[in-house]
Amino acid sequence: MEQRGFFQVFRRLRETHRQVIHEQFRAIGLSRGQPKIIEYLEDHDGCIQKELADNCQVRASTVTNILATMENQGLIFRQASADDRRISNVFLSEKGWEMAKKIKVVNQNTDSLALNGLSLPEQKTLMALMEKVTINLKKGGGLYDKSDQE
């Protein structure tokens, strides 16, 4: 059996997780991008669209489209800012808050599925190692040397 490198194992994990969780989100009526926005609005209800785009790592034009769909679904509403009428604040509707609860359940179910068979110490070790890898990647983000292509 061929030894797989970290990148191959991580990519397979990421793709499998994405498929599993998006299938569950589709089952509750959400499309890609919507869960992330709802989760952000839970803690930042009333933020502006630019803040959503910046913090959800989504292009402003994509956020515009996602929000329009969410507004049509009754998950959010927009209200002109009291300070600047050109700016709209985005709020979760009652239906949006209910959907936030469903997202939490999907996330918990996915965590349980992913960690099935791992002891609590193994889970803690896995999380700690993943955090270390994340920190390493953030620190070494400029390691790739473009001159290597030449």
Q: Given the helix and strand composition, which structural class is it? A: mainly alpha
Shape: globular
Average pLDDT reading: 90
**H/E order of the elements?**
HHEHHEEHH
Order of strands in the sheet with most strands: 1-3-2
Low-confidence stretches: none
Number of helices in the DSSP assignment: 6
Short description:
This protein has 150 residues and is mainly alpha-helical.
How would you describe this protein?
The chain has 150 residues and is mainly α. 63% of the residues lie in helices and 8% in strands. The protein contains 6 helices and 3 strands. The protein has helices at residues 6-27, 34-44, 49-55, 60-72, 94-115, 120-139, and strands spanning 47-48, 76-80, 88-92. It has a 3-stranded antiparallel sheet. Strand 2 and strand 3 form a beta hairpin. It is globular and about 55 Å long. The mean pLDDT is 90.
Core attributes:
8% strand, 150 residues, mainly alpha, 6 helices, 3-stranded antiparallel sheet
